[in-house]
Amino acid sequence: MDNKQITVTAPLLPDLDEFNRMLKDIWASKWITNNGEFHQQLEKELCAYLKVPYISVFTNGTLPLLTALQALRVTGEVITTPYSFVATTHSLWWNGIRPVFVDIEESTCGIDPDKIEAAITPKTTAIMPVHCYGKPCDTKRIQAIADKYGLKVIYDAAHAFGVEVNGESILNAGDISTLSFHATKVYNTIEGGAMVLHDEAMKKRVDYLKNFGFANETTVVAPGINGKMDEIRAAYGLMNLRQVDAAIAARQKAAQLYRKELKGIPGLRFFEDMPGVRHNYSYFPIFIKADEFGMTRDELYFKMKEQNVLGRRYFYPLISEFSTYRGLPSAAPDNLPVATRIANEVICLPMHHELSENDLERILNCIKNR
Ligand SMILES: *Cc1c(COP(=O)(O)O)cnc(C)c1O
Q1: Which of 192, 200, 201, 161 is nearest to 177 (CA)?
Q2: What gap in Å lies between CA 230 and CA 189, rounded to an integer?
Q3: Residue 193: CB within 6 Å of ligand 1?
Q4: Strand order in the sheet with 176-180
Q5: What is the pLDDT of residue 342?
Q6: What is the pTM of this model?
Q7: Considering the domain 244-368 in this protein, what is its CATH number?
Q8: 180 CA to middle of ligand 1, Å?
Q9: Could you report the per-residue pLDDT of 107-121, keeping only the tens digit for each?
Q10: Which residues of the chain have pLDDT under 70?
Q11: How is the chain split into domains, by residue range?
């Protein structure tokens, strides 16, 4: 077997010749950004593909988080998860909002709805959960709590592109959901992101906010930012939309093989599909209990690395352990026992559309022949 490096992910890339033809159209039009034709078409096609009413595309996945908080005028304290990519919490910090960390559920790695109410104070204005690994949060229970206390809900749905529950998009939950189209995600526009909105008025407000607050040539209605996606990446995004289903199917095949081959290994846990859910197979996390598995998570992680198989310890360390946040009362490990444990058990195995049988065999051998 060869020993080439197996990376945790690989970008979905459009056909270069076809992309060149689109670039020629852009060059001919000389319209390279600011709500151009491809930008408009991408928003339209994303709405259809994702089964959502309104979408606003952005230049990355962090700006929609920042802008969603502005659009909903969120202030004070926001309840969120420590088990995510740092951008989730950074978006609160950049808005002068205090993050309040709540522990996660072992079964989904999402925020534990049972623990949300105890974290609500008079300053709480919103909940920001994450559909971690694209596994849907319990959106009904979270909404019931939000309604009871009059809170907004913003889902960081960066992992949840195309995820559906009983035929309905998970992106329709809450007040706003945000997506990332970064190169490492299931669907990418190199850098990019989007906000999913439920009504035209909010779509309009967000479109103003991502263009400095301009409502027209001479009117600025709010202190907006520059979050606009350019025509080149919109064209790239249109092409990738045509092949994302095939990429998800290839990922599903890899996930099925992982599950078949890893079943029954003591001290190794992984997720099964959830009933009624269309998953996107964005990540394949495994969770290692060292005493039963006979090796710690880090020992396995570095052993894989030695064999040129790159997993990722997503999410380790917890966001609450970074220096900016560790001083917050809610960041104490005692407050976050499940997240603290899971962060020390997890490795995301390589998962993308181009894993060969040979790659998968090498990855599985690292784990089986320990
Ligand atoms: C990738 C990611 C983001 C940030 O997206 P960018 O496009 O990289 O800015 C935010 N939240 C989560 C959970 C992510 O995985």
Answers
A1: 161
A2: 10
A3: yes
A4: 54-58, 193-197, 176-180, 152-156, 124-128, 77-80, 98-101
A5: 98
A6: 0.97
A7: 3.90.1150.10
A8: 5
A9: 999 999 999 999 999
A10: 1
A11: 16-240, 244-368
Q: Is 353 exposed, middle or buried (0-12, 13-18, 19+ CB in 10 A)?
A: buried
Residue 370 Cα to ligand 1 midpoint, Å, equals: 33
Q: Is 158 in the pocket of ligand 1 (CB under 6 A)?
A: yes
Confidence at residue 1, expressed as pLDDT on a 0 to 100 scale: 59
Q: Burial of 351 by CB count in 10 Å (0-12 exposed, 13-18 middle, 19+ buried)? A: buried
Q: Is the CB of 177 inside a 6 Å radius of any atom of ligand 1?
A: no
Q: Measured from the CA of 185, which atom of ligand 1 is nearest?
A: 1
Atom of ligand 1 nearest to the CA of 191: 7
| Domain 16-240 classification at class level | alpha beta
Q: Is 233 in the pocket of ligand 1 (CB under 6 A)?
A: no
pLDDT tens for 277-324 read 999 999 999 999 999 999 999 999 999 999 999 999 999 999 999 999
- Residue of the CA atom closest to atom 7 of ligand 1: 61
